[in-house]
Structure prediction request, 248 residues.
Amino acid sequence: MLNGPGFEQEGSYALYMSPVHDCSYLPGREARNLFLDPAAKVTPKLYQQLICRGFRRSGCYLYQPACPDCNSCISLRIPTKDFKPSRSQRRNWKRNLNLYQVEPGPARFDDEHYRLYKRYLLQRHPNGSMACNSPGQYSQFLTCDWAETLFIEFRRAGKLAAVAVSDLLPNGTSSVYTFYDPAMGPEGLGIFALLWQIHYTRELGLAWIYPGFWIETCEKMSYKSRFRPFEAWTGQQWISHTELLHQG
Prediction:
């Protein structure tokens, strides 16, 4: 149950364990998730408290990995005030800021977004089950009625190039998912999208951006550790990136 210190709302919240299944990140590994009771009433305060304990949102489900023999998925958070881009990130920012027009907007189904999402999945995850998502499944994956979600559009000369899905939290933002035109990958559009979200979160006066799970041995997830400084959730507390890398 979720209660005790740090949980200020009245009542308690049940947690459930999913069946063991194949890991979608690391071939040959088994995965399992701990998730909040889907019937629980989620408020911004509860959502923030769970994010601060390493949970993530997928649709209306709040979960964290609880794999039987693996702890490779590590939740990160980046302090917006202290973030210092690397030299390559500064080059990326300068180049792409002049190329793209960026506009955050409310979460909604848009056929142009959905077509880009399908192209992205077919290129990046051609054998994954998500590549067959219908419009309804797409909306269920990215949006939720209790989350304050933004769809951030990145356009180049009017053409949609990327969409970053981000949740607004009381103390920061949570990067839910980003998809982009695969033909523009060499321009570092995914990196630029996260840099832009860090900048935007700072402009809102919010302390943290939660970019999701870092997996050191998964190429698609390992890039997050290059955004420094960051903190990592150990299952008990947040530690600095220097502590984490020293442990490794």
